[in-house]
Amino acid sequence: RLPSLLVAALLIVATAGCANRGEDKPRGSAVAGAAAPLLEGGPKAFRGRLAGLRGRPVVVNQWASWCDPCRKEFPWFARLARRYEGRVAFLGVDSLDDRTAALEFLREYPTPFPHFFDPDGEVARVFFGGRAFPTTAFYTADGKFATTHQGAYPSEAALDGDIRRYALRG
Known about the structure:
alpha/beta; 6 helices; 6-stranded mixed β-sheet; 6 strands; 170 residues
């Protein structure tokens, strides 16, 4: 009986990530109330994810659960990520935060994109973030860094304008 349980456990572990391979949307992240995962791996994993998204522009939102302006603009990122699905990739970076508080924040403000857990701010330094919360970074479809917007956006329309200007520019 023990060998069959071991085989079953190994099969579960081996296939756990298969349904998400190659997608920008983690399982369950678009479901209301479901928390997107907090990815690990630091700057190396973040750069790897960016490289894997080459061919599409990328918008990166740096946030923290304790940041009130982040709470205000987070629903804008979720709506715009859905609007531009397939044309623009979105990534979140939870910096200088507590994992439990961050996961609760993501349950309260679900998004259709993954987030990197960045407790020491190293990932944010990749895109010149960490100076203000929130911070938004833009990468072109060929993977080149375009610009960083420090601080909160005053409106969803302003954020959308920067997505069009920096991510979708011709």
